[in-house]
Amino acid sequence: MATNENLPPNVIKQLAKELKSLDESPPEGIKVSVNDDDFSIIYADIEGPAGTPYENGVFRMKLLLSHDFPHSPPKGYFLTKIFHPNIATNGEICVNTLKKDWNPSLGLRHVLIVVRCLLIEPFPESALNEQAGKMLLENYDEYARHARLYTGIHAKPKPKFKTGAITESTTALNVEQHNTSVLNAEQKNAASGAGLSLPTSLAPSTASTKGGINPDHQHQQSTIPATETGVSGTGTVGISGAASKKEGLPKVPADKKKMDARKKSLKRL
Q: How far is CA 111 from CA 13, 52, 156, 219, 246, in A?
C-alpha cells in the first residue's frame, strides 16, 4: 500500500487525479506508471518518435517530485541509455520546462509531452552531452548513426506496465483510510464476542440438567484445577471420595454401648 510520506496530502490528492487521467487517456507514445509505495516517483515509457534516430525504441524515464512540488519542478532522468545532446550520460534531462520555465500550474502531462518532443527536436546549444551536441551541429548523419546504434542496443521494448495499475493505486489512496477504520471495528467486535462466548467444555449439558444436577454446581466443579487436588482429573473426585468414606464407616449399635456402661458400673461395686 502506498504511504506517500514525501508529499503533502493536498498534493497527493491532485496527483491521484492527474495520474488517473494519464492512465485512462495517455498522451501519444507515452505510458505512465507509479511506484505503489511512493507517488513522488513517476515512471514513463516513451516511444521513439517516427522519423527520428530513436524510432522503434522504447525509453524508460522517471520523474522525481520533491516535497515542495509543485512549487519546485520535478527532476527528470532517462533510465534507458540514449545518445542525445540534452540527456547526460547519467540520464539527467536538461530542458527549460524543468528549470527556468517551470510553473506550478504545469502538470505531469505537459512535462512528459515536452520530454518526448525533445527526442524530435534536440537543443544542442544547452547540451549536457557535449559529444552529442557537437556532433549534431557539425555532422547530423554521424549523430543520427550514433543515436540509432544506442537505440538498437539499449532501447528494446520493455515489459509493459500493468494495465490499470495507476487506477488501482489512486483508488487505494481513497479507500486505505476507510479500510483501516473497518478493520479496527471488526477487531473490536471480535474481541467483544470472544469475551462473551462460553467455551463448549464449560457449558452445562442438557443431560445433566435433566438428571437433577445443578448446572451452576457442575460448572464450579469442572473449573477446579487438577493440581489443587493432587490427582488427575477434576477436583470432584477427591470430594466424592471423601464423602464415600464417611458413608462407609460402620455404625456402633446403641445396645452394645449400654452393655459396656453396665459392666463398668458392676466393676465399681
A: 19, 20, 23, 75, 98
Q: 136: closest CA among 153, 118, 156? A: 118
Name the band, by pLDDT with cuts 50, 70 and 90, for residue 254: low
Tens of pLDDT, residue by residue over 10-52, are 888 888 889 999 999 999 999 998 877 778 899 999 999 999 9
Q: What order of strands is seen across the sheet that includes strand 75-78?
A: 30-35, 38-47, 58-64, 75-78
Place of cell 494495465: 163
Rg (CA), the chain: 43
65-to-22, 110, 220, 222 alpha-carbon distances in Å: 17, 15, 67, 66
Catalytic residue positions, numbered: 94
86: Cα separation from own chain's centroid: 39
Residue-by-residue DSSP string for 55-90: TT-EEEEEEE--TTTTTSPPEEEESS---BTTB-TT
Rounded CA-CA distance 59/62 in Å is: 10
Find the mean pLDDT for residues 165-183.
Answer: 53
Q: Which three cell numbers stand for residue 68?
A: 515542495
Nearest-angstrom CA–CA distance, 10 and 151: 39
73-76 contacts: CB < 8 A, separation 24 or more?
73/97, 73/98, 73/99, 73/102, 74/42, 74/98, 74/108, 74/111, 76/111, 76/115
What is the 8-class DSSP label of residue 235?
T
Q: Return the percentage of the chain with pLDDT > 90, whole number.
A: 43
Reduce the DSSP state of residue 29 to 3 states and report it: coil
pLDDT tens-digit series, residues 51-77: 999 999 999 999 999 888 889 999 999
Do the Cβ atoms of 129 and 83 come closer than 8 Å?
yes
